[in-house]
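Subject: Sanity check before I submit

Could someone independently write out the structure tokens for this chain? I want to compare against mine line by line before I put it in a report. The sequence has 373 residues.
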Amino acid sequence: MAFFSKLKDRLFKSSSKLEDGLDAIVAEGEKDVAPAEEIRQPDPAPEPVKAAPPVAEISEKETPVPAPEPAAVEKPAKGPGLLGRLMGRSSSEAPRRALDDDMLEQLEELLIASDMGVDTALRVTANMAEGRFGKRLSTQEIKELLSAEIARVMEPVAKPLPIYAKRPQVVLVVGVNGSGKTTTIGKLASQFKAAGKNVVIAAGDTFRAAAVEQLQVWGDRAGVPVLTAPEGSDPASLAFDAMTKAEADGADLLLIDTAGRLQNRSDLMEELAKIVRVIRKKDDSAPHNTLLVLDATTGQNALSQVETFQKLADVSGLVMTKLDGTAKGGVLVALADKFGLPIHAIGVGEQIDDLAPFDPEEFAAALTGLDRS
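---
Independent answer below. Compare away.
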């Protein structure tokens, strides 16, 4: 299955929420204007049917004309209800609504409800309305406009993880508890290994045995060595030793896992800052990439996570996981609009091919429920 199909299927919560909301907005406008339309454009009246002459007046040469069925004359076809109009019309007959202030306000509220954020929602709807104010639009046309505007916002940040000539290229992976760091590292290691890169993993979450075991499973699967330290060891020391080992082995990439931490825990955040300081003693240009892994289900809280981690770890790019578990996938649009940080990959599941490079057009189409087939 192509990743777009999987993305669309698994973004169903988000896309169906937006799609249902758009249908409701347009249907509300159609309900308000339907009676006027029927008055302006009435169905043509049926041609009068001549009644058969009385039996007494029929001559011998005339053929009697049978009387028409009463239903054909007296009972015109019943028009479809609102549901029928929504479901049974062709694209040219689709319900439409004028793009006015009321409709824009409803669109803004719908986008805000999808976690796109107030500022981003206002900007997106304003751009959609430019040159189209007063025009009557169908749900499909609105989806196309919305998808195009979301893709435009996200196009500048859709960048794969850069690969440098520097060896080893040190990639520090950070994020809060449960964001999916360990799984993301395993998937990245497996994918880079399959692409011919020499990869080493450092299990820097020395306080959680399950994280180390999970990385070792991924390492075995991908044929990638995983460097560990005794439980409770100093993660900064492990990172330094891992750099030494990766350099000696001629590794292309060193992926360093870190313990999940809450951005409001100053002690844990200081520990992360220490890892960065120690790494730079070995190579003052390292880490060459600092990936912040974000859980899409946290919604707008992801914005505060980016702000905090940027201050301590100089975040260079984002990976968004668990997009299949939220009805508010619009947060990724808000992140792109506010921070402009590269979005390297998105995840929609647990399998290795459920993490893929970020494609803004595919994401926008999947988020809005737009069919690109």
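---
OP: Matches mine. For the report I'm noting this point. The longest helix spans residues 12-40.
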